[in-house]
């Protein structure tokens, strides 16, 4: 079997971020989590850094290194999403405050040092929130770009357009300048936009499968889902809610569950109306150079089977 892929998870937990972290920690044969870097996004940084550790402790993984990063976007005021995720970002089950420490080093320094010290092309960056930490790392140390194996990120949309504005998805909208820098960095990029995550929908049987595991982790996943589903069910009139961020980790384990196109993606930063829009050349109508694989579809049953099987191991 191939060696486990080394990853850094950059994240703003967030219930769906939490499920993504659990999926990674439950998959040691395929994935080695070198560290988790928190960024401001769904809620402010002090909460995302706390939530990342709550999730590691829930999984019994107090050994995972968690770092705090940027507390605000590169040039804009922080926009948060308590209306979706609750005031802590992880509303739902009552979970204990973490006792494991936050690492002293800044998340951006950890990303830079790791990419410089690990062999070239062996570290994958998994981004589940605004791209501020990644952009700061690339700005501080442009030499890391050619050392990155892959960037896999949740963000953007083409057919689904937007969720935080009519034109923009939340992670890209919060820090469009950071997104622009990451999409221009030259590393291989795979994107999980709303076009695919809106097909990774929870349903009652899928949530029941988590609840019926009878484990603290299974119960927590079901209760997180119960909490954040209320918002999307009402908004989209769907039977469940999209599990956005776990798509990033699932793609590392089972890329065969996903399909997309290698296209050019540019980020709109200037227009007040469409700021944060991911302008994806899905139909190939420009001669712009492709820079990202933009995923459009997934096998939702296969995705939830994977999630359930893996989460049951924790
Ligand atoms: C993204 O925004 C956040 O609210 C979720 O955690 C996900 O990363 C979806 O637009
Ligand atoms: Ca997120």
Short précis:
The radius of gyration is 18 Å and the shape is globular. It has helices spanning 15-25, 45-58, 82-85, 107-117, 132-140, 170-174, 176-183, 194-197, 204-211, 216-236, 246-253, 300-311; strands at residues 5-11, 31-38, 66-68, 123-127, 148-154, 189-192, 258-263, 265-267, 278-280, 292-298.
Structural write-up:
The longest helix has 21 residues. Helix 1 links the parallel strand 1 and strand 2. With about 325 residues, the protein is an alpha/beta fold. The chain has one domain: Alpha-Beta Complex (Inosine-uridine Nucleoside N-ribohydrolase, Chain A). About 35% of the residues lie in helices and about 15% in strands. Strands 3-2-1-4-5-6-10-7 form an 8-stranded mixed sheet, with helices on both faces. Strands 8-9 form a two-stranded antiparallel sheet. Helix 9 runs antiparallel to helix 10. The chain binds beta-D-ribofuranose and calcium ion. The site of beta-D-ribofuranose has 15 residues, from helix 1 and helix 6.
